[in-house]
Design brief:
The longest helix is centred in the last third of the chain and has 18 residues. Strands 1, 2, 3, 4, 5, 6, 7, 8 and 9 form a nine-stranded mixed sheet that branches. The termini are far apart. 35% of the residues lie in helices and 21% in strands. It is an alpha/beta fold and 256 residues long. It has nine helices and nine strands.
């Protein structure tokens, strides 16, 4: 019988933190069908995970096909009503998925429910919640200089607001994205042209532009994200991030 909820975690040079993430799924009060898309088949991580969590389904790839395409590999298998896209460095409380499912059931107009994302010390990460634009990107790059740049970053992430109730937003982070499966299937998943970065921005925009439902940020739904940001600390990672931004603007047009 198809389960109400499915989840996919992309494996790529994951540390043992992915065991913590899957243990959260295993301990969840909701029943979840779990898929692991293995972008690093040269490692034994997937084998170890299958041994520890026998119910998971591994979808092996030939190599690193990127975040979006890896998540799309699960599309032919999905029979759920709701689907969770989750990073291997995310943890959450046992009742979270049940609560998110119940909220989506009560609000059929919602396409994506996105949570408050916390650091390990309990502080908020303040991830973007609006569509990307040139001045918002400048705000992120130059936030440490203060002034207008910090204000732009705070506006982009809603850090300038005391959000205590669910509100509609324009962006849902791909680190923990709770989506209605029918919407994910209709869109054929992420745009595979985005290897890494901005695939979540693009998915969010397609949902809103095609009137497939709203994206709601719920501050009482909370996850913890370790977020090492290792990809952005190398020249290759920075160039990949810039490349994805150019792809996004080429597709949607440049906005200030």
């Amino acid at each position: 019988m198809p389960s109400l909820l499915s989840a996919c975690v992309v494996l790529y040079h994951c540390g043992d933190e992915v065991f913590d993430a899957l243990r959260c799924v295993e301990n969840s009060s909701a029943e979840v069908t779990v898929y692991l898309c293995d972008n690093s088949p040269e490692e034994l991580t997937a084998d170890r995970l299958q041994w520890t969590f026998p119910g998971v389904t591994v979808l092996p790839q030939q190599g690193n096909i990127g975040f979006g395409r890896a998540n799309n590999a699960v599309l032919p298998h999905l029979q759920s009503k709701y689907h969770l896209i989750m990073n291997p460095d995310v943890t959450f409380p046992p009742d979270l998925l049940s609560r998110m499912t119940a909220y989506m059931e009560a609000h059929p107009n919602i396409a994506i429910l996105t949570p408050r994302v916390l650091n390990e010390d309990g502080s908020e990460q303040f991830l973007p919640k609006k569509r990307i634009s040139v001045h918002y990107l400048l705000g992120g790059l130059l936030e440490s200089r203060g002034g207008i740049f910090r204000r732009w970053r705070e506006e982009f992430t809603l850090a300038d607001m005391d959000v205590r109730s669910p509100i509609p937003v324009e962006f849902a982070t791909g680190c923990f994205l709770f989506i209605r499966t029918s919407v994910f299937l209709r869109l054929k998943g992420f745009d595979p042209r985005f290897f890494l970065y901005q695939e979540d921005s693009d998915l969010s925009r397609r949902i809103l532009d095609q009137n497939l439902g709203s994206i709601v940020y719920h501050p009482d739904m909370q996850v913890t994200h370790r977020w090492a940001r290792e990809n952005t600390r190398t020249m290759k990672g920075r160039l990949r991030q810039i490349h994805s931004v150019f792809k996004y603007f080429r597709k949607w047009g440049i906005t200030w």
